[in-house]
Write a structure and sequence with these properties.
Length: 339
């Protein structure tokens, strides 16, 4: 695998003043000993972060930590699919932070349940990162902003158009009903670049047989590529194994996916993906936090930003296997090539 990064963001050496280091040690010891922390005892700039474990999340946390070094203390609470929203309540009560950060869907969904159960409370500022379909989720949360994780189809498809020699004018996509607004928005963006999204809508509840039938129907249409949306319901392991991989085996046109792991050669699925740069996502999140700090720990607008830095990945080996002709001189512009 060959990797080349475009991002101009450099990772500086973290320097923390002695007084802040001492405060952090005391705070960490108090947490380990189970001691309660009052607002007067804690640092004014304490941030409580909830995240699943994983390399991508670690990169985002590093971006946050590097950019906020010396300005805030970040305390991380690891979460998994079995973590209850009571854990969030206990952590907030114990640490009494000034701001919350949620990475990924699992912590954000738990926080949504927490807010619903404590609707009479005034919620401290929060930001959400690395969560799918954030615009939809933030409709149900108070005092929370964030950065989208999805990259618009037009961004991926315009880049794809420069890489492959065949024309990219009609692109197929299957989506579930709840994503209708998202697809309508992406159709409009693509139209501006003379790309037509040929979309098939499915109900929110699907089966292997139903998905298989619709995907076969879509692949027989006159499409130049396939765009696979980030939807855990469509990309459940049983659907990947029994529908996507078998039916795409003989589809010798580009398949664009939204996450790098779907471009692995042994999976035989996507050839091209564009996703947010995870470290840069953390830096961008830190800039949002800095604005909130400068505003007296207040969020003025309910905003969701797009990611400012992306990584693109091309599986050259799978492209060659499917006889997809590539513009070799354009490949050096990509971040990651899977050979």
């Amino acid at each position: 695998m060959k990797t080349k990064r475009f991002s101009s963001i450099t990772q500086g050496i973290t320097q923390v003043l002695h007084s802040r280091t001492l405060s952090f040690i005391l705070l960490s010891l108090s947490l380990l000993l189970g001691m309660s922390i009052s607002h007067s005892e804690q640092m004014d700039n304490t941030i409580l972060l909830f995240s699943p474990r994983g390399n991508n999340f670690q990169d985002t946390i590093k971006g946050l930590s590097d950019d906020l070094a010396g300005d805030a203390i970040i305390i991380t609470k690891w979460m998994n699919n079995t973590t209850e929203n009571d854990s969030i309540a206990q952590s907030i009560k114990k640490i009494n932070p000034r701001l919350l950060v949620f990475l990924g869907n699992t912590p954000l969904q738990a926080y949504t349940r927490y807010q619903k159960q404590h609707s009479d409370k005034k919620f401290i500022p929060a930001i959400a990162l690395s969560a799918l379909h954030l615009d939809r989720q933030l409709k149900y949360l108070n005092n929370t902003i964030g950065i989208r994780y999805e990259i618009p189809a037009v961004t991926s498809l315009v880049q794809l158009r420069t890489i492959v020699k065949a024309p990219i004018k009609r692109v197929g996509v299957i989506y579930r009903q709840w994503m209708n607004d998202f697809i309508v928005q992406n159709k409009a963006y693509c139209k501006q670049e003379d790309i037509e999204l040929v979309a098939i809508r499915m109900p929110n509840s699907i089966s292997i047989n139903r998905l298989s039938y619709q995907l076969k129907h879509l692949l027989h249409k006159d499409i130049d590529a396939l765009w696979v949306v980030n939807d855990n319901g469509l990309l459940h392991a049983r659907f990947i194994q029994n529908v996507w991989v078998p039916l795409l085996k003989n589809f010798n046109k580009p398949v664009v996916v939204g996450i790098q792991k779907l471009t692995k050669t042994n999976l035989n699925f996507g050839i091209f993906s564009v996703e947010a740069d995870h470290y840069a996502l953390g830096v961008q999140g830190a800039e949002m936090i800095a604005e909130i700090m400068a505003n007296g720990w207040k969020i003025d607008t309910h905003k969701v930003e797009p990611p400012v830095s992306i990584n693109n990945i091309l599986n050259v080996k799978l492209s060659n296997k499917k006889n997809i002709r590539l513009n070799q001189q354009k490949l050096e512009q990509l971040d990651t090539l899977i050979q």
